[in-house]
Amino acid sequence: MTQLRVGLIQTRTxxxxxxxxxxxxxxVREAAAQDARFILTPECTNVLQKDRTKLLxxxxxLEDDLVVRGLRDLARxxxxxxxxxxxxxxxxxxxxxxxxxxxxxxxxxxxxxDKLHMFDVDLPTGETARESATYTPGDRAAVVETPLANFxxxxxxxxxxxxxxxxxxxxxAQVLTAPAAFTRPTGExxxxxxxxxxxxxTGSFVIAAAQxxxxxxxxxxxxxxxxxxxxxxxxxxLDHDEPGVLIADLGxxxxxxxxxxxxxxxxxxxxxxx
Length: 274
Prior knowledge:
The protein is of the alpha/beta class. The chain is built from 7 helices and 16 strands. The chain has helices spanning 17-33, 52-55, 66-78, 162-170, 184-202, 253-261, 264-267, and strands spanning 3-10, 38-40, 81-90, 96-103, 109-114, 120-122, 128-130, 143-145, 150-153, 175-177, 205-208, 212-214, 220-222, 226-228, 234-237, 244-251. It has a 6-stranded mixed sheet. The chain has a 6-stranded mixed sheet with strand order 8-9-10-11-14-15, with helices on one face. The protein has a two-stranded antiparallel ribbon with strand order 6-7. Helix 1 runs parallel beside helix 3 (66-78).
């Protein structure tokens, strides 16, 4: 396939699973109605609740999650690929994971990826985040080969770690996913430039579906979902943080063209550190 139409779903996910499914389903249908073949949802698609004492008792396995089940049904009904940017779920060992899941048009989950990098930070605004207090990080990268394209999976804070994206590109990824629930201060400062940098460095498309606005749990997220081409050009972008759909057409031949023009993946050398 040389042309791929993708749909990026921007949400303001509620604090309960049932409300989250009711919120996202019409947006997925809207993307499919505009002929998107691959639909990406944001981080925390299934629930957004920063109070871990309220969140953790509601989590179940990926297969049993209400929102994931609903999106699997939608993929089957609409005949599309749906990448659940992340769902907050229970791992097999009973610990929590921030997990991405790629669903094919039969409704089968064909790949998963657990967020590798945990956002543990004290921001100048006074906001504090300790993802590692709630979630167990993953330990492997994931490239998903599909008839549409090869997708490298990342989640939110991962975008600050170039080595992961390079490994995904070397592993065959043409399109890098970056579902996110980015904070507003860091989003305003860094969102576009980080995503464009990861695209340029790897000669890959980057598609970033975001949470946006002020949520029931009091959190604020940046929005501005974006699709970036392998030369770093912005293909499409939402200019707001309201729920909505961004449609972007990816000309996949641009990946080989960019990597031939700037062969950074081939030219890199190992070295001894300082």
